[in-house]
Amino acid sequence: MSSPTPKTPLLPVTSSRTSWDPQRSSTHSIQHFAGSNPHANTSPLTSSSILIVATYLLVWVSQSEYAQILMSGNNVKGGGYNKPGFICYLNHSILIIFLPIVYLFSRLYYGSTFSFSSFIKNWSGNFTFSKSFYELSLLSVGYFICIWTWVVGLTYISVSASNALYQLQCVFTVMFSVWFLGEVLTQNKKVGCVVSFLGIISVVLPPMLSPAPDSSTDDDPTLPKNDSNASLLGTLFTIASAVLWGAYEVGYMYISDRKNVGTKITSEDASKFDTVMETMMTLR
After folding, report:
1. Where are the transmembrane segments (predicted)?
2. Residue 75 gets which letter from DSSP?
3. 83 partner at 20 to 30 Å CA-CA among 160, 181, 237, 258?
């Protein structure tokens, strides 16, 4: 009787301390984000994941409320601070305080193989440094405009309407992913788009059809409800922000994939996005 064949382990055995390889690290994170990681965790939702999603929703709604209060001047001593550009800049540039935390985490995870100099040296990946800098700078400008239009929209419509309209980002992300990245429009994505539309309609449509009992919105009494022009302007700004956010997500994935991996996007899809990027870089 022959001896039983030993089972092949599902995952390779590795050491507890991983050496830092920017190419491999970026590849793994992109594959996991895109859902192509063969060893990704497919277990049902855990209490931790539900808590993370709930915390994200709470923080997002809270910052929307705070931004509207700050802009409108409601319950703010001295009036509102109607400077959406500076609010956007401060809101995101303040994240620089977390850079030391990122560095410490990288040192703990990768050990002595990680250094700031090696990160700067390998940052551009398959691109030249100037190409990476220009394309990521363009992406950052688009992201800033995205947040700016969202903040401006909050001055004209309620927080509930803003958050509902902003869910159009899911639809635009799917559209841009299919067009620029060549992704397949699966049944799950179609269902997700339909659910997003139904959610938007259920929140935005009833207040528009019901008669206004007074001259203020339900969320913020400082915002006029009977001003159709202001509501339309706020709606357009918010939808523009949703479009830009969908473009930002797809653009980030596209640039990261070519910069660090360069294997999942066809040349035909690359030519479409390259045309857009090169045109924008020429106009800068």
Report:
1. 84-102, 136-158, 164-182, 191-209, 229-248
2. T
3. 160
Q: What is the DSSP string of 149-195?
A: HHHHHHTTS-HHHHHHHHTHHHHHHHHHHHHHS-----HHHHHHHHH
Phi, psi of 144 (to 5 degrees): -65, -45
Map out the domains of the chain as residue ranges: 52-82+123-283
Tell me the pLDDT tens digit for each residue of 189-223. 888 888 888 888 887 777 666 655 454 444 554 45
**Angle of helix 47-72 versus helix 84-93 axis, rounded to 10:** 150
pTM: 0.60
SS3 of 225-263: the string is CCCHHHHHHHHHHHHHHHHHHHHHHHHHHHHHHHHHHCC
Q: What tens digit of pLDDT does each residue of 68-78 get?
A: 777 766 655 66
Per-position DSSP letters for 97-133, written without gaps between them: GGHHHHHHHHHHHHGGG--HHHHHHHTTTTS-HHHHH
User: Which residues touch 214 (CB under 8 Å, ≥6 apart)?
Assistant: 225
For 186-209, letters b (16+ CB in 10 Å) and e give: eeebeeebeebeeebeebbeebee
The gap between the terminal CA atoms of the chain, to the nearest Å, is 75
User: Can you give the pLDDT at residue 51?
Assistant: 85
Dist CA 18 CA 16 (whole Å): 6
Task: Supply the DSSP symbol for 96.
Answer: G
Instruction: Give CA–CA dist 55/226, Å, rounded.
Output: 34
18 CB contacts (<8 Å, ≥6 apart)?
109, 110, 111
Tokens of 74: 């409601």
Q: CA 195 → CA 159, 160, 171, 220, distances in Å?
A: 20, 17, 10, 27
Calculate the average pLDDT of the chain. Answer: 70
